[in-house]
């Protein structure tokens, strides 16, 4: 459809057989990497992709142990503004959708903001679970012994949030208390709850339950606030898991 457009590789670093119109999202191709990594909105990223003539993408479907695509604007764009045209196992080639291409910047941002997370029922949902929708910059780690499933996601930027839709009467937020933790904000159905994650020594798998929410669908949004108590050395918050009962 667009024979002159370039392909952005999001999975492999060997470009030997990729051809002259394949670009790599890696610091080895600094200009491409820098322009994409610096995009603060999905609409802004779209302008960058258009300027680089990038309309096609080769990516890999995320598995339970995979890191999020970074920056989050690129992850949102790939998830919501591309459609696969060829698939081979977890690998696929995709192209920009006509719908996203046609929307103006404000309409595109409104569309993405209105997308609901997947609705889940009672159970435990680790921070790497696909039911959680992350926004902003988060660090996801699999290198700690003490969190649930040895994974934890943490952030400090006030733009960082994660949304979670569920059906159940209570929600338990599982997190880590530590000396560099700040104050998290957990919004449930529009009601805000501040949780101070500070402790002088690490307290893994700490829990705070929010009960008696009533029947039906509920929406929880966990946010970094950028606030902390004076004793804390940082404003980090984290997510170990959500438990729905």
Task: Summarize the structure in words.
The chain has 245 residues and is of the alpha+beta class. The protein is 18% helix and 38% strand. Strands 6, 8, 11, 13, 14 and 16 form a six-stranded mixed beta sheet that branches. A five-stranded mixed beta sheet has the order 2-1-3-5-4. The longest helix has 10 residues. The relative contact order is 0.13.
Feature tags:
245 residues, 5 helices, alpha+beta, globular, five-stranded mixed sheet, six-stranded mixed sheet
Overall 3D shape: globular
On the 0 to 100 scale, the average pLDDT is 89
From the helix content, strand content and strand pairing, which structural class follows? alpha+beta
The biggest beta sheet reads: 6 strands, mixed
Quote the distance from N terminus to C terminus.
49 Å
| Rg calculated over all Cα atoms | 20 Å
Oligomeric category? single chain
Q: Which band does the percent of strand residues land in?
A: 35-45%
Helix-residue proportion = 10-25%
Order of helices and strands: EEHHEHEEHHEEEEEEEEEEEEE
Number of strands: 18
């Amino acid at each position: 459809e667009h024979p002159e457009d370039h392909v952005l590789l999001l999975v492999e670093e060997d470009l030997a057989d990729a051809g002259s119109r394949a670009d790599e999202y890696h610091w080895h191709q600094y200009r491409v990497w820098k322009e994409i990594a610096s995009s603060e909105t999905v609409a802004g990223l779209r302008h960058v992709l258009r300027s680089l003539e990038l309309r096609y993408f080769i990516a890999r479907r995320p598995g339970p142990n995979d890191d999020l695509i970074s920056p989050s604007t690129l992850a949102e764009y790939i998830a919501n503004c591309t459609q696969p045209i060829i698939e081979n196992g977890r690998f696929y080639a995709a192209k920009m959708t006509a719908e996203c291409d046609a929307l103006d910047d404000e309409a595109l941002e409104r569309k993405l903001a209105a997308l609901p997370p997947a609705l889940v029922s009672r159970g435990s949902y680790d921070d790497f679970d696909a039911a959680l929708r992350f926004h902003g910059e988060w660090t996801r780690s699999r290198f700690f012994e003490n969190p649930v499933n040895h994974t934890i996601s943490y952030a400090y930027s006030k733009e960082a949030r994660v949304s979670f839709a569920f059906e159940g009467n209570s929600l338990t937020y599982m997190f880590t208390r530590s000396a560099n933790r700040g104050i998290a904000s957990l919004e449930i159905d529009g009601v805000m709850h501040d949780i101070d994650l500070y402790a002088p020594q690490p307290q893994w798998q700490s829990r705070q339950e929010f009960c008696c929410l009533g029947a039906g669908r509920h929406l929880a949004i966990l946010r970094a606030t950028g606030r902390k108590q004076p004793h804390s050395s940082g404003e980090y918050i984290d997510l170990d898991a959500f438990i729905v009962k």
